[in-house]
Amino acid sequence: MAVSTGKYRFGNDTGWLRLHTERTGLGRRAGHDLLLEATRWSGTAAIGADGQVPSGAVRVEVEVASLTVREGSGGLKPLTDHDREEIVHQLCSGKLLDAHRHPTVTFVSTGFTGGAEGFELTGDLTVAGSTENVTVSGAVGTDDRIRGSATVRQTRWGIKPYSAFLGALKLADDVAVSFDTALIPAG
């Protein structure tokens, strides 16, 4: 691993951050599983001796209004541009993420175990004004890119998963979050 002791930055200019939702309910065939991407996000990391990450050393901030729909699979018909706009509107509204009152989602690490070949990073994730602990699993690839994922159960953060058709179609409570990024030395 080329990542050594020091301070680093990362974000949408060095990689991607995506969310994957799945549909559930009796009407799930009508909806779409969604792949969302944050187009404005950034983070910093401080790597200590022996590749360890001290508490509070990783910070990530995602602009809620930057979420875009990359793709929608399944459903009775393909997603239209109007559908994509409506999905983002619903996500950013006061009913879900309330981007007006809470414009960012933040993560601040509280613990680290493992190493380059596989690690777990625990931390506080703040979504729509509510903070809960989450665990991120990841590894550094042979190309020195850091890849990882976490599962976010929406109801833990007080978010009621989106539903339609009187609840016959709804999003599953768990949202899969994944990332792939390079670390750039911070000057």
TrEMBL record:
Residues annotated as domain Lipid/polyisoprenoid-binding YceI-like: 7-184
Family matches, as InterPro entries: Lipid/polyisoprenoid-bd_YceI (IPR007372), TTHA0802/YceI-like_sf (IPR036761)
Family: Belongs to the UPF0312 family.
Name under which the protein is recorded: Polyisoprenoid-binding protein
Source species taxonomy: Bacteria, Bacillati, Actinomycetota, Actinomycetes, Micromonosporales
